[in-house]
Design a protein that fits this description.
Helix content of chain A: under 10%
Number of helices of chain B: 0
Number of helices of chain A: 0
Strand content of chain B: over 45%
Distance between the termini of chain B: 31 Å
Largest sheet of chain B: 7 strands, mixed
Structural class of chain A: mainly beta
Radius of gyration of chain B: 13 Å
Shape of chain A: globular
Largest sheet of chain A: 6 strands, mixed
Oligomer: heterodimer
């Protein structure tokens, strides 16, 4: 049961344009969402996150939008740069009643930014 | 550089063998997580330790076990290895067990032949 889904395995964008990566989730108990970037042969790198009590969080060129009613979030990168080319993972977490925050990851979207 | 270190970087072994993967969390981080990334699946949570105690388990096989030592480094032990255990194994750490942001190491690529 895939609780976090990234339906686009790949995305190609021109340098300077906007990249929009999408993520859907099914578990309404998720209360925090994160985006990670991963280059080949490296571990995932934390990019940006959003709490379920917000609908937008911005950090420089990166903005994450959350639509709780649709159980959908998106990552916008503006402007896109060739160095942004990587696999982007959406992840979700639910603290719940305990002190664990295991991350549930989507399958990733490979972003290619063309010069 | 996330500050999380993992050794070895690559490991090639035969079926039926046992291996140990090592992780050192970021300085000050008390919580360690292990994830597996195989070709046909995304990153899958295996197990979490917090300050030496097991805190949560994911879909970790009974052939796999882990522990966190007093100096907070962690080891993931994989035994009776099968071809399907070939994967990337990532360790991540966070300051507290309930902190959402996790910082990942570079991973150990395990190849079982």
């Amino acid at each position: 049961d895939q609780q976090v889904k990234q339906n686009s395995p790949s995305l190609s964008v021109q340098e300077g344009r906007i990249s929009i990566l999408n993520c859907d989730y099914t578990n309404s108990m998720f209360d925090y969402f994160l985006w990670y970037k991963k280059y080949p042969a490296e571990g995932p790198t934390f990019l940006i996150s959003i709490s379920s009590i917000k609908d937008k969080n911005e950090d420089g060129r990166f903005t994450v939008f959350l639509n709780k009613s649709a159980k959908h979030l998106s990552l916008h990168i503006v402007p896109s740069q060739p160095g942004d080319s990587a696999v982007y993972f959406c992840a979700a977490s639910a603290i719940g009643g305990g002190a664990t925050n295991k991350l549930i990851f989507g399958t990733g979207t490979l972003l290619a930014v063309q010069p | 550089d996330s500050g999380v270190t993992q050794t070895p970087k690559h490991l090639i072994t035969a079926t039926g063998q046992r291996v140990t993967l090592r992780c050192s969390p970021r300085s000050g981080d008390l919580s360690v997580y292990w994830y597996q990334q195989s070709l046909d699946q995304g990153l899958q949570f295996l197990i979490q330790y917090y300050n030496g105690e097991e805190r949560a388990k994911g879909n970790i096989l009974e052939r796999f076990s882990a522990q966190q030592f007093p100096d907070l480094h962690s080891e993931l032990n994989l035994s009776s290895l099968e071809l399907g255990d070939s994967a990337l194994y990532f360790c991540a750490s966070s300051v507290r067990a309930g902190t959402y942001e996790q910082y990942f190491g570079p991973g150990t690529r395990l190849t079982v032949t």
